[in-house]
Amino acid sequence: MINDLTSKDNHLMIGGVDSVDLVEKYGTPLYVFDVAMIRNQIKKFKSAFQKENLNYQISYASKAFAIKAIYQVMKQEDVHVDVVSGGELYTALQAGFPSEKISFHGNNKSRAELLMAVKNQVGLIILDNFHEIALLSQILKDTDQNIKVMLRLTPGISAHTHKYDQTGQTDSKFGFDVNSDQAKQAMQLVLSDPHMELLGIHAHIGSQIFGTQGFKLLAKKMVDISKQFQADFNYWPKVINLGGGFGISYNDNDDPIAAKTFISEIAAELKKACQDRSIPEIWIEPGRSIVGPAGYTLYKIGSRKDIPNLKSYVSVDGGMGDNIRPALYQAKYEAVVANKMNQENVETVHIAGKYCESGDILIDSQAIPKTSPGDILAVLDTGAYGYSMAMNYNRNPRPAVVFVENGQDKLVVKRETYEDLISLDLDY
């Protein structure tokens, strides 16, 4: 993404706003989102489907970034969202997002969460296991409510990604296993429940996927499964949900595929597999690919440690508390010095966080210009799983979040204060 950056007067510009001005106004660390980039990515997914003449839905996987403001942007862009907890559902509802366009995911939804979803008449509950079928069935019976559901399947397809990001293989905590006939048993239970309307089937094979082969295999497998369900139960799905996992470029080693390429290859596979049948409506659940490239995290550079014959450590005023992914997944990012955009890189350093962990290294090897304390470092492509996974380790407050669009900036999440940190503490 570095080649796509814009600068003015030696400063990084984000959505037409000077990043240095943002730091002066809101402080650091600071999450900044270019909202136009989010809207443009949604339009690319929509355009790709429309070109293939398929019925479709884009369902934003909001676990990537879930605050009221992003749900309001998704409402403006007329897409669905999926939530994975009562907290995400509550946030979406409080943001005014229409409940009929919400899908509720999760492998261990509580009774309270399911009841909340039923009372608010969410558009879809994606069933993950037999316990959940029984729990939801009882809730629907007790409340005399009906709801649309979908079965999440594990089709036995593994994506080429980090092992913690693989979710479609048979040995997974998610979904009904196809190979052992669990999926058929779940189908029988749902079809026999008078309060559930089975909308279709769902699978998700992983995250940060760069190739199309896994998605093509998934598309064919889901149609094959549907044909078997039609033979066994006379049921043909209205919807096939192929999940998300479309990769983005965090650094020069990442080679993401354009949305139109993913969609065109998936569409070709579906059309081939459904030659003698109607093609169901196709849903996808992009999260990272919608918000990831639009996000920047701004820090102030502080201390520096120089070691003879080794890379120096340049520390910033944030770290694993606002971006856990480098420590958790060994995720690799790139950064620029936002107030020295036109200066030549003169050294390669470790970018270290301020947390009391040796593993708190945001970037292991980053080329930068000569820096001084107070310079501003911008880590790129942090829009996904930054704020949503942020924490208060070492009792550090979580950063503020700012949206920028058309040269205007707006605070959408206030910076936590020390008072916020102890607001739930009680005296002993």
Walkthrough of the structure:
It comes from Companilactobacillus alimentarius DSM 20249. The protein has 428 residues and is of the alpha/beta class. It has two domains: 2-34 and 292-421, Lyase, Ornithine Decarboxylase, Chain A, domain 1 (Beta Barrel), CATH 2.40.37; 36-289, Alanine racemase (TIM Barrel, Alpha-Beta Barrel). The chain is 29% helix and 24% strand. The protein has twelve helices and 21 strands. The protein has helices spanning 19-26, 35-51, 68-76, 86-94, 111-119, 130-143, 182-191, 213-233, 259-273, 288-291, 325-329, 418-421; strands spanning 6-8, 11-14, 17-18, 30-34, 56-61, 80-83, 102-104, 124-127, 147-154, 176-177, 196-202, 239-241, 281-284, 295-305, 313-316, 335-337, 347-352, 361-368, 376-380, 400-405, 408-413. Strands 4, 14, 15, 16, 17, 18, 19, 20 and 21 form a nine-stranded mixed β-sheet that branches. Helix 5 crosses helix 6 (130-143). The longest helix has 21 residues, at 213-233. It starts with 5 loop residues before the first strand and ends in a 7-residue tail after the last helix. 46% of the residues are buried.
